[in-house]
Write a structure and sequence with these properties.
Elements: E1 4-9, H1 13-22, E2 30-35, E3 44-47, E4 57-58, H2 67-79, E5 82-87, H3 95-107, E6 112-116, H4 123-127, H5 143-149, E7 151-153, E8 157-160, H6 171-179, E9 184-188, H7 196-201, E10 204-209, H8 213-224, E11 231-236, H9 246-253, E12 259-261, H10 265-272, H11 283-297
Parallel strand pairs: 1-2, 1-3, 3-4, 5-9, 5-10, 6-8, 6-9, 10-11, 11-12
Antiparallel strand pairs: 7-8
């Protein structure tokens, strides 16, 4: 695995002592240090249960021997290019907005590109990109051409926008080029039927639906056609109406709903200004953060 800088973050003296002992058998290439807050130069952050901080691993004092394996798995996750597909059984559920905010979460820990496969209204429209902005149709099959087409946007990630009036791309060629440079690829698929093969090959699928009976019934059809078990189902309340409860929706789709995103006026204001929601204290943004942590730990 090579050199690794591990930061153990805790203010509890007993947890700090147990964690230090747990790392006694760590590989000699690892540098392990105790901290009260996550340092910027850490490769892996291990947080004690007493800390509410961004962490790759949470130290369990009841099972201290597992922490070395947990750190190794965290390193493997960061070094493997992962593809997260965000889609919906129908349009108008906020797939692009969810995908963009997940890409920003991802960019905090790995080079990230959002690839826009929404063939109607995708990331370019949502971010207000100019009509002549480069798209994945110009990306080619080399890393250099892909980076020219992948536009850096506020939030610390890049966007491969979708061209207007073009059918589905050669997904394999495009993603192979993207894997050479990015650690995370978030794919915006407006409707699940547009690029079905990608849903099966993605490391994780986020299925966004409105909290309504028709949307739940369509979601059930999509789920019945998926063989991948790596699916997080979320409801996104984009406006008034759709008052079904979480339990009612779960009864229709036959699966657990991982997250309910509330209607947020601040998000609507941000969309009007072609920007992402900046307030981490927003319930909507906190929900996206929890969703990303669930995806990363899977």
């Amino acid at each position: 695995m090579g050199a690794l800088n591990v930061a153990v973050v805790s203010r509890d003296s007993s947890i700090r002592l147990q964690a230090a002992r747990a790392f006694d058998s760590a590989p000699p290439e690892w540098t392990v240090a105790l901290h009260h807050a996550p340092p910027a130069d850490a490769d892996v952050v291990v947080a004690g249960a007493d800390m509410d901080v961004e962490a790759d691993v949470v130290f369990d004092p009841a099972r201290p021997g597992r922490v070395l394996d947990d750190v190794s798995r965290a390193v493997d996750r960061t070094r493997e290019t992962r593809i997260i597909a965000v889609t919906s059984p129908s349009g108008g559920t906020g797939v692009t907005t969810v995908a963009l905010h997940l890409a920003r979460e991802s960019a905090r820990s790995a080079p990230t590109c959002l690839v826009d496969f929404d063939l109607e209204w995708g990331a370019g429209c949502r971010l207000g990109l100019p009509a002549d902005a480069p798209t994945w149709a110009e990306a080619g099959d080399s890393e250099a051409s892909l980076l020219r087409a992948a536009l850096p946007v506020p939030g610390g990630f890049r966007v491969l926008a979708g061209p207007e009036g073009t059918g589905p791309p050669d997904v394999g060629v495009l993603l192979r080029a993207a894997r050479a440079h990015f650690g995370r690829i978030v794919v915006d698929i407006g409707r699940a039927s547009e690029v079905p093969d990608l849903l099966e090959s993605a490391n994780a699928v986020v299925l966004v639906l409105a909290p309504s009976a028709p949307s739940a019934r369509r979601a059930r059809i999509v789920l019945d056609g998926l063989t991948s078990g790596r699916v997080a189902i979320i409801t996104n309340r984009v406006g008034p109406g759709g008052e079904m409860t979480k339990a009612e929706i779960e009864g229709i789709i036959g699966r657990k709903v991982a997250l309910e995103l509330p209607c947020d006026r601040r998000l609507r204001d941000a969309e009007d200004d072609d920007r992402l929601l900046a307030a981490r204290w927003s319930r909507w943004e906190r929900g996206i953060h929890r969703l990303w942590r669930t995806i990363e730990s899977a």
